[in-house]
Every structure is written in C-alpha cells, then in structure tokens.
Write a structure and sequence with these properties.
Length: about 375
C-alpha cells in the first residue's frame, strides 16, 4: 500500500505536528546483488538508517525511515568489500523517492509552476527540484524538432547582464547578455523551439544553422518584429521563406506612435513633460486601449478632452490612425472567422494611408505609414495572423 516498489512497511506512527513516520525495509530481489560484480550476497555487514524524502500524505508530511542492510561481497577477485542496498526507484546516493522527483518535474513541466514554487510545498530546495525537472526535460530537448511551416523569431529579456573586467585590457567584457533570441513554432504544437543568448543576426542565424537542411527547407513563413536584424538572418539561412511582420509588433508600433505624438504635443503646449492635472494626462491610459474596449463614457471623455483645441486634435489624429490600422488588421481570420478578401484589406489599408496623408503635418504619422507600407510588401494577409 505504500506504493514504492521494493519497500515494505514495517510500522507507521503519527508524530506530533501532523507528520507521519513510516518505517520500511527493503523487499527487492536485486537489492542484495553487488553493483560491481553482480554476485548475490548472503552476508550482512551492518544495518544503516536513511531518510529519503517522499510525497506528502494529504496535508501531512511523511518521514520515511528506511532500515537498509549493508552487504559484504564475498566474491573472489571483486574489488568491492561492502555495498548498500539500493532500488531502481531510489538509486544509490539519491535522497528523494522516484515519485517525489516525478511530481516535482511534472509541477514545472506540466503545470508551469516555477521551480521554487514546485519545491516549496514538498520542502525540497531549488537545486534539487531543478535537477528533477532537468532529468525529465533533457531527453525531450535532445530530440530534434519536428518540421515547422510557420516560424516565429523574437527577442526576449531575461535576467540581468553580467560583466567581468578583462585582466589584460582593464575593460568590461559582457559575460551574459540580458537579451535572448527565441524561436517558436507558430502554427504547430511545439511552442518554444529554442532560445539563444544575444539578439543579433548572427545569434538567430546560429540557431537556424544547427537545424538540418530538410528542416530549414520546410519553413514557409517566418514572422518577426519590424526591425531588420532578424530579417537579415532569415534571408541568409532561410532564403526561400516568406518574411512577414508579426501582428503584435505592428500594433505595438502604432500605440508607441500615439504616445510619441502625445508627448511631443504636451511639451510644445506646456514646455515640460506631462503630469497629472493636465487634460492630456487624464486620457493617456485610454489612448493605448483598443477602441472596442472603451465604454461609451470613456470614448466621450477622449473626444471631449482632445477635440476642443489644436494640440489635442493632433493627438486625436494619431489615435485615429492607430485605430484605422487596427481596422485593417481586424480582418484577419482569427477575428472574423473567414479568410479576408484582398479587396477589403486594400480598402481598409487605403483608409489608414489616406488618413496619414491628410495629416502629413504630423511627422510621426508619415513615418508610421512609410514603415507599414514597407512591411506590408513583405507580408501577405493570410499569413499576418500572428
Ligand atoms: Zn562484488
């Protein structure tokens, strides 16, 4: 009933404070076999007590007290004088039962818990929990990735940069970059395929170069951000793939442009940064939201605050440009449920470009329109679903 193969419960006692002590002995045919020469021993050298960690029983902590035998190896010519019993589930020098290691690994791998959180409830330290997780993850990582049709490449910020002083030159050298490059399977089930340190074209190309040629040939579309660094890596390593800009980054840019215009206008009007109390400051949170997520009174607040004067109207024009661009992006199949027809996409994009052209006195909108038109020639409507 204890459930660990090879362990037999001798006695169990409830301790004060809600923990249970379970006394066990070994009951496994292989336990008395010398690990060096494979001879079964019949001579007990001594008894030793070990306390491997095990799962909780409900809310109670379980203390396993395992009375092991240390055997004498009498085989002639064997270098091993004595050996202690071990089990497949609790190998030599292992301080955790297999099922506890399995639970810790599953908490991280299946449930997405942090390593620290997975170990905390079982009173297992971070390094031991991480080792259990790595034991499970390494065989999976060793398998080559399956073919991917739609690949995503993006940067990811992780941890802090670390520097060291070069003893020769006295200059600081970067040991660990805080920026990583992540490679994703966008349309399949594989999720994150790889992560390399750094965010240069060489860093991305390095990972792509490790893949087998057949895998690289299978990639049809690569979605990246609007910066040219990854584009050059993809052109170098995956020349046949279609390069598209990820939808997230297009919207992110339009939102940033709205903020840029607001900051410039506020500085022109007050001669300083915006602060609470300014009319524009009160709606800055609303400007970054999607139009369809604004309540009617919030929409009215934006219009009333910004529509009344020349400065506000400039911010309003940038906000409307963002929404016109989103209008075109909202034709994607994930929103509408059907593949967009090219004429509709053209029509809505025309609306965006036309609006930017009418407001060509706002330099940020001119730049945005130019960037989007440059990005669009490389993308196709059915592929920019991000
Ligand atoms: Zn032996």
């Amino acid at each position: 009933m204890f459930g660990v193969e090879g362990l037999r419960v001798v006695e169990a006692e409830a301790e004060a404070g809600g923990s249970v002590t379970v006394w066990v002995t070994t009951d496994h045919p292989g336990a008395a076999v010398c690990p060096e020469c494979g001879t079964r021993s019949a001579r007990v050298h001594e008894h030793v007590l070990t306390r491997p960690r095990d799962l909780r029983r409900g809310l109670d902590r379980v203390q396993v007290a395992w009375l092991k035998r240390r055997w004498k190896c009498g085989a002639p010519g064997c270098g091993r004088k004595t050996f202690t019993e071990s089990l497949p589930d609790v190998p030599a020098r292992c301080r955790l039962t297999g099922r506890l290691r399995g639970l810790l690994a599953a908490e991280v791998a299946e449930r997405g818990c942090t390593v620290a959180e997975a170990g905390r409830w079982q009173h297992v330290s971070w390094p031991v929990t991480h080792a259990a997780f790595a034991e499970r993850a390494d065989p999976v990582l060793a398998q080559p990735p399956a073919l991917v049709a739609h690949l995503g490449i993006d940067e990811h910020r992780r941890g802090r940069p670390r520097f060291a002083v070069d003893p020769g030159t006295g200059e600081h050298v970067l040991l660990a970059d805080r920026w990583h490059t992540c490679i994703f399977d966008l349309s399949g089930e594989q999720g994150l395929l790889g992560q390399v340190e750094g965010r240069t074209a060489d860093d991305a190309a390095y990972w792509l170069a490790q893949a087998v040629p057949a895998w690289r040939d299978a990639v049809q579309v690569v979605a990246i951000d609007m910066c040219s660094i990854y584009a050059s890596a993809v052109r170098r390593m995956l020349p046949a793939a279609l390069l598209v800009v990820d939808l997230f980054h297009v919207v992110q840019l339009a939102v940033k442009v709205t903020g840029d215009v607001r900051r410039r206008v506020v500085r022109a009007r007050y001669g300083r940064r915006g602060r609470s109390g300014d009319a524009e400051y009160g709606v800055k949170g609303l400007l970054v939201r999607n139009l369809e997520h604004l309540r009617p009174e919030q929409f009215a607040k934006v219009m009333d605050t910004l529509g009344g004067n020349r400065h506000g109207q400039e911010i309003l024009a940038a906000w409307i440009a963002k929404e016109k661009l989103r209008d075109a992006l909202n034709l994607r199949a994930r929103v509408t449920g059907s593949t967009p027809c090219e004429r509709d996409v053209r029509g809505r994009l025309f609306g965006f470009y036309d609006w930017c052209a009418q407001h060509d006195d706002i330099p940020e909108l001119v730049t945005l329109a130019r960037t989007v038109s440059g990005g669009r020639t490389r993308s196709s409507p059915q592929c920019s679903q991000g």
